[in-house]
Automatic annotation (TrEMBL), chain A:
Top EC category: translocase
Protein known as: NADH-quinone oxidoreductase subunit A
Keywords tagged on the record: Cell membrane, Membrane, NAD, Oxidoreductase, Quinone, Translocase, Transmembrane, Transmembrane helix, Transport
EC annotation from Swiss-Prot or TrEMBL: 7.1.1.-
TrEMBL record, chain B:
Organism ancestry: Bacteria, Thermotogati, Deinococcota, Deinococci, Thermales
Subunit structure: NDH-1 is composed of 15 different subunits. Subunits NuoA, H, J, K, L, M, N constitute the membrane sector of the complex.
Protein EC: 7.1.1.-
Keyword terms, alphabetized: Cell membrane, Membrane, NAD, Oxidoreductase, Quinone, Translocase, Transmembrane, Transmembrane helix, Transport
Membrane topology category: Multi-pass membrane protein
Name used for this protein in its record: NADH-quinone oxidoreductase subunit N
Cellular localisation: Cell membrane; Endomembrane system; Membrane
Encoding gene (name): nuoN
Domain NADH:quinone oxidoreductase/Mrp antiporter transmembrane, chain residue ranges per copy: 104-379
Catalytic activity reported: a quinone + NADH + 5 H(+)(in) = a quinol + NAD(+) + 4 H(+)(out)
InterPro entries on file: Ig-like_fold, NADH-Q_OxRdtase_suN/2, ND/Mrp_TM
GO BP term, pick one: ATP synthesis coupled electron transport
Source organism superkingdom: Bacteria
Length: 121, 560
């Protein structure tokens, strides 16, 4: 089979479309079949019959911290990727360059570790 | 290179070292590394160096603007002390970014450098954990992010128009003009040219005074370094108009805005806007780097003096009334403030006078008479508000507010403002920078040549070792800069000018025949008055290296 450039991406697109169609179909079937008798108690959020937690002030900042750290180190991985696939041709200079980059970000990691960003209490 | 290594290594090491040593030690190490970078700069002054495939360039622009930026950071490090070592650390990060900003001709690298010094400043602006502090930090961050986005879009258009990421590449067409205007706008945010100045008064007022000191001096130096590189294009066109409009608006609104202020830091913020306009004037002629450099140095010393005095009084607001009689209560602070204000006003015999004179001369050289007159008039307006403050400093009478702490006391002014509030005290050493800077302002006012020589090419030749690495083949860096290609000239009234490597001899050809030989002077320029009057009609002037057949040329038409 002769594939034009990019045709495998077309396959991915088709894959997504098929997955989406099946998912929607399942939801539609689930929504169409079955009895529909809504009531006040049935529509209440689940908390064993009690009112749910009520008003929450705000989330702990940890979730933001973890998300920010994830973004930073995911960007680091995005930079490591091109090196990983062409490590052989970049030689020792490429390795040292990458090492410096990694060490710089590792210093950042050690800083936040010692600062206790990952401590949850 | 070493400057970068010192600053980069110090920032990295101190990040972790701070966990083990007291904040005081970190501060000294940070101060030491910035001071070492400055000393190294002086020892290699005038030497050129390139690294990382041209992404990092050490040249007079880099050295001059780095000097001003690092002096600003050094001053902030000497004046401010906090119990958190991150305070000195963030200043050090900013210093690294500013040095890179002054030393790269590559636009994406400039953007990264811009972020490297801006992000620490956003944090530092919020150091006072009170409402004005938060407001300052948030405003600075949002507008800074916006300007970075504009800058990035400008870079993309620049690449689209010229196919190059290098600043100062010649291009043409509306896309190129749009790219330069976007980049100009984004950098105008950083140096607070009107109408991109709105954040300046709030941020300078809301930030701790020590941080405002650095923002007002070092950030401007870094921003103008980038502007000098980006606007280093011969064809002025649309961006020239843009720059002219920005300068006109800046000198008008900066000075008029300052008239209405009642608080010293806000006044200095408006004054810094106005001064950015005057520095912008120096950008016009394209050869004004030395004038801009000297202006920024004089401005650093004078505005630094004013901010350092305010920092000694309070890290918060300082209403005018609080300065009343400062000279009698605290003679050192009074004298320093007086010298700073008079120099900012541009009165002789202080450094600020020569700074203004030099950029005005640049404007005259570029024949921007309208802007020049405007700048002169507004600088007369400026004298009013500077002298009003000066008048308060020397006036007899009592300040309306509580006594002012001595500069040497090291009292934490903002200690325990709120839960989690970070204190920031004025250090014991804060008196010495005041004395040294006042002396320098007067010295440069009497002997401006000392400072000006720093920024004109290859000063300190005796101090620095000769560059040992002469390239085997001469690069093609010679060109004719005047007249421009396709110019129409009157017969008998022009000379050729151009650039080349210092000391080299070039041949000038007219339409295929060799007419003269020129020698490039130590500034890398040459000029030639034509030995015989050229005839009417088309002439192609070409400059060649001896023995080479080709070289850059310009075509001019001589008319009656």
């Amino acid at each position: 089979m002769t594939a034009s450039p990019g045709s495998e991406y077309l396959a991915v697109l088709v894959y997504i479309a098929v997955a989406l169609a099946i998912g929607i179909l399942a939801v539609v079937v689930g929504a169409a079949l079955g009895p529909k008798k809504p009531g006040r108690a049935k529509l209440m959020p689940y908390e064993s019959g009690n009112d749910p937690a009520g008003e929450v002030k705000r989330f702990p900042v940890h979730f933001y911290a973890v998300a920010m750290l994830f973004i930073i180190f995911d960007v680091e991985v995005a930079f490591l990727w091109p090196y990983a696939v062409s490590a052989g041709s970049l030689g020792i200079a490429g390795f040292v360059g990458l090492l410096i980059f990694t060490v710089l970000l590792f210093v950042g990691f050690v800083y936040e570790w010692w600062k206790g960003v990952m401590r949850w209490r | 290179m070493i400057t970068l290594y010192i600053l980069g290594a110090a920032s990295t090491v101190l990040t972790l070292l701070g966990f083990f040593v007291p904040a005081r030690v970190t501060r000294w190490l940070a101060t030491g590394s910035v001071a070492a970078s400055i000393v190294y700069l002086f020892f290699t002054w005038g030497q050129r160096q390139t690294a990382f495939g041209g992404l990092y360039v050490v040249d007079p622009i880099s050295q001059g603007f780095t000097l001003v930026a690092l002096l600003g950071v050094l001053w902030a490090l000497l004046v401010g002390r906090s119990e958190k070592w991150e305070f000195s650390l963030l200043l050090l990060y900013a210093a690294t970014g500013m040095h890179f900003m002054a030393s790269s001709p590559n636009l994406p690298v400039l953007l990264i450098a811009l972020e490297v010094f801006s992000l620490p400043l956003y944090v530092l602006a919020t150091w006072r954990r009170d409402e004005p502090g938060f407001e300052a930090g948030l405003k600075y961050f949002l507008l800074g992010a916006l300007s970075a986005a504009i800058f990035l879009y400008g870079i993309a258009l620049h690449f689209g128009a010229t196919g190059s990421f290098n600043a100062g590449v010649q291009g043409s067409g509306p896309l190129y003009a749009a790219a330069l205007l976007l980049i100009l706008g984004a950098l105008a945010f950083k140096v607070s040219l009107v109408p991109f100045h709105w954040w300046t008064p709030d941020v300078y007022q809301g930030s701790p005074t020590t941080v405002s000191l650095m923002m007002a001096t070092a950030v401007k130096a870094a921003g103008f370094a980038a502007l000098v590189r980006v606007l280093n294009v011969q064809d002025q066109g649309l961006w020239g108009l843009g720059l002219g409009a920005l300068i006109a608006l800046t000198v008008i609104f900066g000075n008029l805005g300052a008239l209405a202020q009642r608080e010293s830091k806000r006044l200095l913020a408006y004054s810094s806007i106005a001064h950015a306009g005057y520095v912008g004037l120096g950008l016009y002629s394209g050869t004004g780097t030395a004038a801009i450099g000297f202006y920024l140095l004089a401005y650093l010393l004078s505005t630094g003096l004013a901010f350092a005095v305010l920092a000694a009084i309070s890290q918060g607001d300082v209403p005018y009334e609080r300065l009343r009689g400062l000279l009698y209560r605290k003679p050192l602070l009074g004298v320093a403030m007086g010298v700073g204000l008079l120099s900012l006003a541009g009165l002789p015999p202080f450094a600020g006078f020569w700074g203004k004179l030099l950029v005005f001369l640049e404007a005259a050289k570029a024949q921007q008479w309208g802007l020049l007159v405007l700048a002169l008039l507004t600088s007369a307006v400026a004298a009013y508000y500077y002298l009003r403050l000066f008048n308060l400093v020397v006036a007899r009478g009592e300040a309306t507010e509580a006594a002012i702490p001595a500069p040497g006391a090291g009292t934490p002014v903002l200690a325990g403002q709120s839960a989690g509030g970070l204190s920031l005290a004025t250090g014991r050493l804060a008196a010495w920078p005041l004395v040294i800077a006042s002396a320098l302002v007067v010295l440069l006012g009497i002997l401006p040549g000392l400072g000006y020589r720093l920024f004109s090419p290859t000063p300190f030749a005796a101090l620095s070792r000769p560059a040992s690495t002469a390239p085997a083949t001469l690069p093609a860096t010679f060109a004719i800069t005047s007249p421009s290609d396709g110019a129409e000239l009157r017969a008998g009234e022009f000379s050729l000018q151009g650039t080349g490597r210092a000391g080299e001899t070039l041949e000038v050809w007219d339409s295929g025949s060799r007419i003269a030989e020129v020698r490039v002077d130590e500034r890398g320029g040459w000029s030639l008055v034509l030995p015989s009057l050229p005839g009417v009609g088309e002439h192609t002037y070409q400059v060649r290296r001896p023995g080479e057949g080709e070289g850059p040329s310009v075509r001019v038409r001589i008319v009656e």
